[in-house]
């Protein structure tokens, strides 16, 4: 066989490897679809998209690794964008060509065009197998650009402590909703906010108020709320509880540690079956009160 004909056959084989490998390793995955129960418990407040590259050894996608990385990257973006008690659901993952893969293909094509052969008779009977170097190079694997999108979901706040009757829980939720509406209207847009604590002699009420405030502020989509994980870590390090009274100086110091421009603290005063919530928003730079709101329950 003439040398030019051999090179043409080699180029054809290499091209076939490129096409088969590309088609076989294309990525199309889904992950963390919302269940019927989650649709009742979670609010979709937005969506996020990330891109990254993934090398497929022998053109076989590692689906578990791709799913895990996509979720981790989406979660980081969602936390930076929305903050608060959020998660990512309904993830859709797809793979396509990347710049790195273009280099792989160019290299394989160049080797094929030169007719470079690899004679592996060192391992087999002499003269039995001769393959194009391009086919071997491309056979190792390929690189794909992975694009992942997901819905950002927010856990709905609890309606109130379990030891409160339904009527009292509704009143508490309405009071916090009114306070939240006032905060949303008066706080500067795009502010980084940390909801620290609401002092009370009832820890369950304090936690319910903090959760509801944070939920309403995140759902407003006008602010960046400090991630719950970072906030919980600082709480442990500083040894204070949601129900504890926090001085303005301590609140400002903690807010600065968290990178928040505004911190929210408050307290609950009860008198028999009624109570009053007072909430203050403090500027961590000036130590001034940005706004203040009260509600009855």
Characterization of the model:
This protein is an alpha+beta fold. Helices cover 44% and strands 31% of the residues. It is built from nine helices and eleven strands. Strand 7, helix 7 and strand 8 form a beta-alpha-beta unit. The longest helix has 22 residues. The chain is elongated, with a radius of gyration of 29 Å.
Structurally, the number of domains stands at: 2
The tally of strands reads 11
Helix-strand string: HEHEHEHEEHEHEHEHHEEE
Radius of gyration: 29 Å
Largest beta sheet, briefly? 5 strands, mixed
**What distance separates the N and C termini?**
93 Å
- Helix run count: 9
Could you tell me the strand content as a percent range?
25-35%
How would you classify the helix and strand content by structural class? Answer: alpha+beta
Taking strands numbered 1, 2, ... along the chain, how are they ordered across the largest sheet?
8-7-9-10-11
Task: Using the alpha-carbon principal axes, give the shape.
Answer: elongated
Give the helix level as a range of percent: 40-55%
What does the oligomeric state look like here?
A: single chain
Task: Look at the structure and give the mean pLDDT.
Answer: 78
Unreliable sequence segments: 116-131
């Amino acid at each position: 066989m003439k040398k030019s004909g051999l090179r043409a056959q080699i180029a054809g084989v290499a091209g076939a490897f490129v096409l088969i490998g590309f088609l076989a390793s294309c990525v199309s995955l889904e992950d963390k679809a919302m269940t019927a129960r989650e649709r009742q418990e979670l609010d979709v407040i937005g969506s996020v998209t990330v891109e990254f590259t993934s090398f497929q050894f022998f053109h076989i996608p590692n689906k578990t690794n791709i799913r895990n990385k996509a979720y981790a990257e989406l979660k980081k973006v969602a936390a930076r964008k929305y903050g608060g008690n959020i998660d990512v659901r309904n993830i859709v993952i797809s793979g396509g060509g990347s710049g790195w893969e273009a280099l792989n293909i160019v290299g394989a094509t160049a080797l094929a065009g030169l007719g470079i052969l690899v004679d592996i008779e060192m391992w087999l009977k002499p003269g039995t197998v001769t393959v194009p170097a391009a086919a071997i190079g491309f056979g190792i694997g390929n690189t794909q650009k992975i694009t992942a999108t997901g819905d950002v979901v927010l856990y709905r706040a609890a309606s109130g402590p379990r030891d409160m009757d339904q009527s009292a829980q509704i009143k508490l939720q309405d009071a916090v909703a009114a306070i939240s509406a006032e905060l949303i209207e008066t706080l500067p847009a795009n502010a980084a906010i940390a909801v620290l604590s609401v002092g009370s002699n009832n820890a369950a009420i304090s936690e319910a108020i903090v959760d509801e405030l944070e939920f309403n502020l995140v759902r407003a989509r006008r602010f960046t709320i400090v991630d719950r994980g970072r906030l919980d870590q600082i709480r442990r390090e500083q040894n204070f509880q949601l129900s504890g009274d926090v001085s303005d100086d301590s609140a400002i110091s903690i807010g600065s540690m968290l990178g928040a421009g505004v911190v929210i603290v408050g307290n609950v005063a009860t008198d028999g079956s009624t109570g009053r919530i007072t909430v203050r928003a403090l500027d961590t730079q000036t130590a001034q009160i940005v706004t203040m709101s009260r509600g009855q329950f």
